[in-house]
Prior knowledge:
Helices cover 75% and strands 1% of the residues. The relative contact order is 0.12. The protein has a two-stranded antiparallel sheet with strand order 1-2. The chain contains 16 helices and 2 strands.
Amino acid sequence: MDFNFYKNKIDNYLDLCLQIKKPAIIHEAMRYSVINQGKRIRPILSLAAADVLKVDIDKVLPFACAIEFIHCCSLIHDDLPAMDNDDYRRGKLTNHKQYGEAIAILAGDSLLNLPYEIMSKACLLNPTQNNLFVMNYIADATGVNGMIKGQVIDIISEGKKISKELLLELHENKTGALIRASLVAGAAMATLDNDMIKFFEKLGLKLGLIFQIKDDILDVTSTKEKIGKDINSDLKSDKSTYVTLFGLEKAKYDYDMFSKQVLDDLKTNFGIDNNLYSLFNYIINRDN
Ligand code: GRG
């Protein structure tokens, strides 16, 4: 399956939202961290989830792109010296290395505010329950009950060997929350049926965990050229990861087991002849 149709739609929309205005430096810094080699997995998940439920994907596009902007903001902030202190991201210098810390912080802030401008505008133009639900869901998944919570657990756990439960809570929130929100956003454009939302939430949680385990595996097995950022960064910052806690073999074993589970769940509900199933396969087999 070729996801370029979805990706082009997303890239065009992101570009449209980021036209350079004055002062140019902040707009350049925002574009630097968005218009680049990002895989766009989260917004593509939203479009594919909407597609599998046969709803017009244009309805979810502003919300899908809002999630990508939030994700880009989180990457800028995550790379800052006060956080992970990384020099490379998406194959080039991190935002603060390119523009300095002050502009990087403000570019991140702007990329967090912009999605709420976009989503609230979509809600004003079309104040459906679906739109309001999705905006609220994304806000919740981003905040202190979701991604921020995961990042905080990550930071306060540095240098400690944490329990399996805490590691799962960390992954479920830091990486899982936005991935879950991406799937739910697409599904909720079609229906607010509780069972369907719950199904996509569970699927998103599991995919988020799979995604993060792969990230942990690639950190120790891949190359800087392939993943576009420094390798062994978790080891250097003394972080507990799936690999450091359980070892590489167990991480790979669990990865395969969880991957089979999500594919089986999808197959049971929607069959295999759809973009969402192909996308899950692509994500599971990714090597960057
Ligand atoms: C934005 C409100 C707000 C807070 C920021 C810094 C922070 C709080 C959270 C960090 C979250 C984080 C960086 C999680 C890691 C997620 C992850 C696995 C990123 C890599 O995702 P890919 O592979 O990357 O989809 P690309 O570059 O392709 O988008």
